[in-house]
Every structure is written in C-alpha cells, then in structure tokens.
Amino acid sequence: MTAPIVPRRVLVTGASGGIGAVTTAHLASHGIAVTALDRHGVLPAEADRHVRADATDPAAVGAALEDADAVVHLAAIPHPTLGPPWEVFSTNVTATFAVLSEAGARGIRRAVIASSVNASGVPFNPRRVLPAYYPIDEDLPVDLGDPYSLSKSVDESSARTAHRMWGIDVVAFRFPLVKDHETLVAAAAHAARDPGATVREGWSYLDVRDAARAVHAALVAPIEGAHVVGLAAPDTLLPGPTEELLARWAPGVPIRSPLPGRAAAVDTSRAELLLGFRPEHTLETDPSPAEVA
C-alpha cells in the first residue's frame, strides 16, 4: 500500500447526475476543489469550475483535467433501455477509457469510476438467471446479456488496463440502486409488492450520501492497483429475514455465509477492508419525512 493521498482538485464527470451532484457537494465540503463536467443538466454550484462537455471527447476531458490530481468518472448511459444497444455500449466504454487514458497520460495517480452491480450481467439478463450464490460478491460468475452490463464489465477491464499502462490506481465501484432517502422509501414499497423483480441484485440499495462518502474514501485510501469494490447498505429493501426471502424467491441458490435478520445479500467486506468504508444510512435508521412530521 501507498501513503494516503489528499487530492487538491478532482474532476467529477457526470456531475449533474444524482451521485455526481452529491459527490461534488461532499468533496467541496471537505475542502477539495472540484471541476464539474457534464454534457447536460445543472452543474452543481459547489464546483468552482464548470465544463459543459461530453466525457467521450478526449480533448475536452484532457482540458478539464487541468490542475487535477484525481478524477471521479460517473458519466454514463445508466440503463440498457436508454438508447440503442450500440449507443449504450459504445458511449459508456468510450467515456471510461477516454477519462482513464487522459488522466493516466497526465500522471494523475488516482481514479474512481462507476461500475455497477450489473457488471456480472445477472440483474438485466434476458434469460432471468439467478446469481450463482449469495451473498453477491465481486467474484460472482459473469453471464452478460445486455449492452449496459457488458459496458460495465468492460469498464472494469479498462481500469485494470489503465493501471498497467500508466500506473494510475483505480477503484471501480459496483453501485446498486443509489438514490436519496425519499426515493429509496418508494423503491422499498415497490420491491415489497414484487420481490421477485429485484432478487437478482439481492434487493440491494445505497443512500446517495453514502455513495459520495465511498467515493471520498476511495480517493484518499492508501492503495495500489485496480480494484473492483461492491457496495450496498447493510440491510435490504425488504422487511423480512433475508435468508427466508432468498429461500422463497431464489430457491436452490447456495447461501455461502450466514445472513442473519435483514442482512444485505451483497458482500461489502472488500469496501471495509480496502477503503475503511461502512455505510451510515439505512431505511431503518433514517426516518421517512412522514415519520419526522
């Protein structure tokens, strides 16, 4: 491991998105200058530099990296249905490689990129395959069947390639459903009505505030190499015991380690061991607005 780093300026791509805007505000609140890049949306006021550009454009990315010593790449088409298959795949992989290659060539030492729980190919798989086991971890066997999941799998390979080519250290986060608390409450209600719809990602979720904290932890952690790191809140979207729910909705799938109570069906031990990160927010510990009122 290397010594912890303290970035002075970070380029955040996809800064107008849900994770991007909250991450920008979080980093700025910790004294880190942020250059915010996005091709559309409202760029966050907390960033002291705004760049209206496409992350697939290497020249624009290179210019936006001026004075930066780290990059957080969150720009992507985030669902396989949000464009033609070729567009979803090519946009995502081109943007990721453009960001990593421009950062690596400039000697930037740290990058954090958004992968996805879908990098395994299981949740969006048209054949509706179940995970090979629970809890889901970063070594889950891959079964790719859609352009978005394929792009996230390639992004993880790009991270490993960038480290070998330029020595840039990269953390690729496998984000689950990441939303603000109010939206997660609604998602939990929807999941309870149809648990089978999201069993393939283990009913996982993450509060967007914890996503921003995880990004910050990955920027400063004393690590080397390219690492894929799974994230999730410590519980699930559903109110029942996790093992009972899996027995009902994923019968026959091995449970390789105990999941007591409402324990998450995603193994997040790598995030804790590598980055010292634990989520702070859950649906149980954070009351809904109605409960506060």
From TrEMBL:
Residues 10-225 form the NAD-dependent epimerase/dehydratase domain. Keywords: NAD, Oxidoreductase. InterPro entries: Epimerase_deHydtase, NAD(P)-bd_dom_sf. Gene3D superfamilies: NAD(P)-binding Rossmann-like Domain. It holds the Pfam family Epimerase. One of its GO terms (molecular function) is oxidoreductase activity. Belongs to the NAD(P)-dependent epimerase/dehydratase family. This is NAD(P)-dependent oxidoreductase. It comes from Curtobacterium pusillum.
